[in-house]
């Protein structure tokens, strides 16, 4: 993710690793870091994927769960 940002990459090049980091921190039980990366992933997915894309749906659903909706 850092390499993508350093090289000026956007869209899926940043959203995908951000989503993966959110999932890693979820597995580790670090909710604070999961939330940080999850919010960034949702933003990225909204910019580059249509609403029906499976990863966007999964990320948005997890964000709703984390926010208690």
Can you walk me through this structure?
By secondary structure, the chain is mostly helical. Helices cover 77% and strands 0% of the residues. α2 runs antiparallel to α3 and α3 packs antiparallel against α4. The longest helix has 18 residues.
Characteristic terms for this protein:
69 residues, single chain, flat, mainly alpha
State the helix count.
4
**Count of β-strands:** 0
Estimated radius of gyration: 12 Å
Sketch the major β-sheet.
none
Q: What is the arithmetic mean of pLDDT?
A: 90
Straight-line distance between termini: 29 Å
| Low-confidence segments | none
Question: Would you tell me the structural class of the helices and strands?
Answer: mainly alpha
Element-level helix/strand string: HHHH
* Cα shape: flat
Strand fraction band? under 5%
Which range best describes the helical content: under 10%, 10-25%, 25-40%, 40-55%, 55-70% or over 70%?
over 70%
Question: What's the SSE blueprint?
Answer:
Elements: H1 2-6, H2 12-28, H3 31-48, H4 54-66
Helix pairs in contact: 2-3, 3-4
